[in-house]
Amino acid sequence: MLIFFSQEKTNLADQYSDLFEICHFSDFSGWEKNKIAPSVFIIAGDRQYISSVLGKIRRDDDVFASLCFAIDPVAPFDNLLLDGQLPQPSVLLEAVSQVEDLQKSLKSSETYITHQGRLIKYLWLRPDFILQPHHEWQYPRFYRYPLLEALSQNGSDSFEWLRNLANNKIIEALTMLDRQRECTYCRSAHLSFIDVCPNCLSIDIKLQASLHCFACGCVDVQDRFMDGGTLVCPKCHTHLRHIGSDYDRPIENYRCQSCSQTFIEGDVQVRCAMCEKEMKPGDLILNEVHSWRLSDKGRTIAFRGEVFDLSSGFDQLDFVSRELFIHDLDWMMVTSQRYPNVHFSLFGIYFANLPDLVELFSHARLLQMLESFAQRLRSLLRTPDLSTRTAESMLWLLLPNTDEQGLTGFHRRIENSMKVLLEESEHKLDFRFISISSQNITGKENAELLLARLSGELL
Ligand SMILES: [Zn+2]
Ligand SMILES: [Zn+2]
Ligand SMILES: [Zn+2]
Questions:
Q1: Where does residue 414 rank: exposed (0-12), middle (13-18), buried (19+ CB within 10 A)?
Q2: Angle at the Cα of 384 (from 382 to 388), degrees rounded to 5?
Q3: Cβ atoms < 10 Å from Cβ of 120
Q4: How far is the CA of 134 from the centre of ligand 3 (A)?
Q5: Which of 45, 292, 368, 457 is 20–30 Å from 183 (CA)?
Q6: Chain segment 317-371, per-residue pLDDT in tens
Q7: Average pLDDT in the 84-94 region?
Q8: For residue 205, which ligand has an atom nearest its CA?
């Protein structure tokens, strides 16, 4: 169904009637009464009309991700919400069927109630889509993302939202378009920079030509040396003939009219035009403006539903950061090389198919299984043992004071604990172990290389 919006009756859509059923409305509220499901929206009219209808479509709970084309030119801001100018019927048909195919592979869940889910759906249906900012000098931050503003119904800050999405690796930056400094207080980019006296902060400073008499060291404005066309020092009355040998120009070329201080360069004060606060240039916040696209992880969410997050299942293992783990492992490796009676072991657990298990069991059930496994694993660990996660499904345990024999014992115990998990998962879980004790580690590797080598053997 082609939904055609136009202010006036036109026959513009007629050439599409062979391929599409057409429904005509003069305003959005007319369509809203029955919400006829669209395969595509076409809008014809002046800029204001198109802008109004388009904005309502992108903010609608049901049809926000639909294809939208315009017949007439639109404002640059609205262009970023549009799929372009209306193409020929055959091209349009192809575009519609591509979106319908993609729509079928989209995991239909309640995810799309959230604004993040909406964005993922919008981008998923447009594989080559690049999320672009719109530059607007009147806008406090100069840049805005029309699509994000339309999809986020709570009017949240677009840059904040982008940062969250990027942190969660749902989108990835494509091109850096600008790097701008913003007000510390209100994040506006409307700033003015002004030189002030470094002594009293007065703005009343002047660039002035000065001279420096070598005979007595006097520094003063050039005018005071002028004496009937020649240069005479106002203090010691020496005739100054040769620059370089009698006098020169001092580098302190600025003079404060308020406190008479002379100086080479003023201090720079920044004033925000929006909130009128003052700050130093070093206090400004740097904001990078990028174009973005959906990442692999974002696409995975689109066709698989929410990404399974292991971290909550293993919460009770008290993971340390990867950096700390590497640091401690390095230290243990050095120590055990130096003192042969110091032993430790390293143990890795890799879960190869957790995402597939999400398909088999419900989220909640899988989470429960992993939680009880984490509990059993925790009871096997002693206080000085460290654990960390280097990838979503890769756990590492560092066991101090554990030699080869101790490691064999640990292996047996963890094997028992794993048996329970395996039964709970109906033997569908694919897990792999790897371990090494300090006696078998050479001095040639460091912690980083050792972990990389062992992980490689697991994959
Ligand atoms: Zn001053
Ligand atoms: Zn002098
Ligand atoms: Zn401000």
A1: buried
A2: 95
A3: 26
A4: 21
A5: 292
A6: 777 878 889 999 999 999 999 998 999 999 999 988 877 777 777 666 777 788 7
A7: 93
A8: 1
Nearest bound ligand to the CA of residue 261: 1
What phi and psi, each to the nearest 5 degrees, are found at residue 458? -85, -30
Decide the pairing of beta strands 267-272 and 278-279.
Answer: antiparallel
Number of H helices, E strands in the chain: 13, 23
Residue 18: its H or E element: none
**Ligand 3 midpoint to CA 171 (Å):** 29
Q: Which residues pair with 219 in a beta bridge?
A: 212
What is the Å distance from ligand 3's center to 288 Cα?
A: 18
Listed by start position, the domains of the chain span 1-105, 191-279, 310-458
What's the CA-to-centroid distance between 268 and ligand 1, angstroms? 13
- Which listed ligand is nearest to 202 at the C-alpha? 1
**Residue with token string 């080559």:** 128
Distance 233 CA to ligand 2 centre (A): 5
Facing residues of 288 across strands?
A: 179
Question: In terms of C-beta density within 10 A (0-12 exposed, 13-18 middle, 19 or more buried), how is residue 243 classed?
Answer: exposed
pLDDT tens-place string over residues 21-72: 999 999 999 999 988 889 999 999 999 999 999 999 999 988 999 999 999 8
We find that the CATH architecture of domain 310-458 is 2-Layer Sandwich (3.30)
- Model pTM? 0.63
Which residue matches tokens 């050439």? 15
Residue 49, φ and ψ in degrees, nearest 5: -65, -50
Percent of the chain scoring above 70 in pLDDT = 95
* Ligand closest in space to the Cα of 197: 1
